[in-house]
User: Which sequence fits this backbone?
């Protein structure tokens, strides 16, 4: 397939393009509603809370309500390992990238580059584009991410020792709890007690088959994660003046690293590992990790910077500019990855 055919195939895939268009369109609706007063300054916080505490946990759990697929399981193991490994690589790579700045600024920018808004920003996009398979990989990737976010990032930002409260944040987070619950059911469903339903026998915890009255409400709630997250993003952008943020050259450098260099490094390293036979990640798994790494900085990381007075204004401005950049960059990355898939590179 030549480059022209690849481009044509990519841009005539209506399901793929519709998912990207939906993301941008609903974000713009949120922006318009904030600018016109339909949304107020508390709307994005309320929507964000619903997404993080209700919709995404349901989405994470229900993604595993399916028959075991051993190829997906193998991919998930690769994604889990890569989730830890790549973030650790970034810890070392980002330090020299931001070494032009003073120690505190460099540390803050490094952490904001490593830890993106994977749950709130990334998973809704992945769900829209790649469905349950992408959601499974995204949540597995997030296991290593959350461990390091609440340990390494906390220690860096606070200059304090790790404490047991952060262990609670890691493992008692609703998304993590339901991810582990769904993952264990998915992996061990053939060993669990079976229940006979109309079209066969299923593990009693396969609620999609054995208890649709539990599964369906969670499915409805999970389906809200994408539109609510995009409306909240648009509302946030609509309520913040751009002038002050754009005047700081550091945030543009940061956004370039976060939305371009980090995802690019992610793709290149995976392709090298695949070529060496050390990894076997396919298109959806690779694309999922790219979207996760191209997200703007994690709200938790930004809050650390603000709470511990480590360049709070820089962190806030970087979050704003990076969010705008991510809205542009992530669709571009998805199109690039789709094209690479068409020519067999991923």
Assistant:
């Amino acid at each position: 397939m030549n480059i022209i055919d690849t481009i044509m195939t990519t841009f005539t895939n209506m399901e793929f393009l519709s998912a990207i268009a939906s993301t941008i369109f609903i974000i713009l609706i949120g922006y318009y509603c904030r600018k016109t007063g339909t949304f107020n300054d508390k709307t994005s916080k309320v929507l964000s809370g619903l997404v993080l505490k209700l919709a995404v946990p349901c989405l994470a759990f229900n993604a595993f309500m399916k028959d075991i697929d051993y190829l997906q399981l193998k991919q998930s193991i690769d994604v889990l390992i890569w989730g830890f490994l790549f973030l650790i690589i970034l810890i070392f790579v980002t330090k020299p990238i931001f070494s032009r700045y003073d120690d505190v600024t460099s540390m803050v920018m490094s952490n904001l580059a490593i830890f993106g808004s994977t749950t709130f920003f990334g998973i809704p996009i992945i769900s829209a584009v790649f469905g349950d398979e992408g959601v499974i990989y995204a949540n597995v990737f997030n296991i290593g991410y959350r461990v390091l976010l609440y340990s390494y990032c906390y220690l860096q930002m606070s200059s304090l020792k790790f404490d047991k409260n952060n262990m609670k944040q890691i493992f008692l987070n609703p998304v993590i709890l339901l991810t582990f619950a769904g993952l264990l059911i998915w992996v061990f469903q053939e060993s669990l007690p079976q229940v006979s339903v109309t079209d066969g026998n299923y593990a009693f915890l396969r609620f999609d088959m054995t208890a649709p009255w539990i599964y369906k409400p969670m499915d409805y709630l999970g389906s809200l994660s994408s539109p609510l997250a995009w409306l909240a993003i648009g509302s946030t952008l609509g309520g913040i003046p751009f002038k002050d943020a754009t005047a700081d050259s550091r945030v543009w450098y940061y956004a370039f690293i976060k939305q371009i260099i980090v995802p690019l490094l992610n793709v290149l390293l995976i392709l090298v590992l695949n070529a060496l036979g050390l990894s076997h990640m396919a298109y959806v798994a690779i694309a999922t990790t790219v979207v996760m790494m191209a997200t703007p900085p994690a709200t938790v990381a930004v809050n650390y910077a603000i709470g511990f007075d480590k360049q709070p204004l820089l962190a806030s401005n970087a979050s704003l500019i990076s969010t705008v950049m991510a809205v542009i960059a992530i669709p571009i990355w998805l199109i690039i990855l789709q094209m690479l898939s068409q020519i067999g590179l991923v």
